[in-house]
Fold each of these.
Amino acid sequence: MPKRVLTGVIVSDKTDKTVVVNVERKVKHPLYGKIIRRSKKYHAHDEGNEFKQGETVRIEETAPISKLKTWKVIERVNTHATPERVDVDA
């Protein structure tokens, strides 16, 4: 069975080897049809304490590491990447 992969923002990096990641998803309301935001926090394993608060990261489901941790951080998502400039000769 494939492991689930989620993308979210780190809201806390205070604990050792652990980060708290806030994952937000958009859901259609069952009765009114309006798109609403739902969020959930996941405790993820960060072995080298290399990820900091405010960064966008991708987390992957793993076997339980502790009581709260069943996710690990895979990689940092580059949200500040700028598209390459294309010069058009007119």
Amino acid sequence: MDAAPALAVPSPLREPGYRVLLGYRLCAILSYQIVAVTVGWHVYELTRNPFSLGLVGLAEVLPFIGTALFAGYLVDHLPKRRLGAAACAGLATTALLLTLISAGHLAPGQTWPIYAAIVLTGLVRSFLTPVYTALFAQVLRREQFARGASIGSIAFQTALVCGPALGGIMVGWAGKTAAYALAALLALVAGGVLLALRVAEPRTDGPRAPVFGSIAVGLRFVFNNQVMLAAQVLDLFAVLFGGAISLAPAFIQEILHYGPQGLGILRAAPALGAVAVGIVLARRPPGRHAGRLLLWAVAGFGLCIIGFGLSRHFWLSALFLLLSGVCDGVSVVLRTTIMQLVTPDGMRGRVASINGIFIGSSNELGAFYAGSMARLLGLVPAVVLGGFVTLGVVGVTAVKAPRLRRLDLKELQ
């Protein structure tokens, strides 16, 4: 990591458009995270079944996967700000539906309307990251991408810290209905902020490429790039098998014996660690030996998940999750920088959507996997096993992807 050259590049925060884009990302993720932590508490309160927490993830990930590739195509061919604002309106609609459910106006005491509302979240969430990724490259210069990715990660992880904390506090002090209402308000603010962004979006001349042919081009690009594919697969399986955080409501109540405020702390701890490492990487962007750093970071993530599963003390569990966030934060910055540097402008939406299927869906699939394994094996064995599988994934990736091991980001800039 070379600090001097990085600091010689103007800070991305000097760009007004980038600041507006960060505001959109921050508010949208705050809304989503408040809903996520509140829904987890809401469903477990009704069912007392860890498997139901996995079904929440499944209800979101299936529509997300089903629409992600088409969302990427639309982002590459339609006005990005309007698509992002429409997606934020969808997030607000989900939160308002959950507000009515929590208040007892829709099917009180039943879980199916909660799952139905979460399906809408999965549909609209597929647009959020491709919109951000495509606009990111329009408001920053190429030499600012590495620092911009680090700062973007800080904003993202800050929302992951504040969102669960706000959700847990609101549930504990004001109730689930108030938490959902706050999430709806933040989603509307995110949409308004994005519409205020002033950026000249490139116009597509001539007829649009066929939908499926265009999607196929994006898929071939990703699968033919060993470094990008290996980084995405590594993150996919690490999060899939190491998704302990989805079981936090069950750990809080059955093992650690805390209330909803404790749930907010555990959900926020990984993001707090990621924010801390993001601040460091914003000043000293990763460069040489970036591939090795990525592999070590994911291995550290697996070890932290094992520690969390074995812990019986609340603050020790929070510490392990904090350290897992440090490792995950390194992975996020490296993966985002790789994607921005190697992707042509004309297919950023499609590539971001493919990345979203690998990465975004892994959180929800990980929640379903963790809930299913907890039902079969119990809470602790399910989490510990997931951590060891993550270590195995790192070993296989290190052997099968030599270009990732030798990755030097300086060569891509």
Amino acid sequence: MGFIWALIIGGIIGWLAGLILGRDVPGGVIGNIIAGFIGAWLGSFILGNWGPVIGGFHLIPALIGAIALVFIVSIILRSMRRSA
């Protein structure tokens, strides 16, 4: 049950990151989950483990990391569309 809860929270974190930036996360729900998980890892690596913990994620660093990840991915995808 803990893994399913982590998937749900990871998806919500990725979705929130996309909403905050006003950009869609590529891949839909799966993309949101991946952005949430990688963003949580990235945010915890850079900012440390602080803030409230939900579903095994430290919420504030995870959200900041997911925002950074969605921003970087959207820039890369935009540059790939222009070059094609």
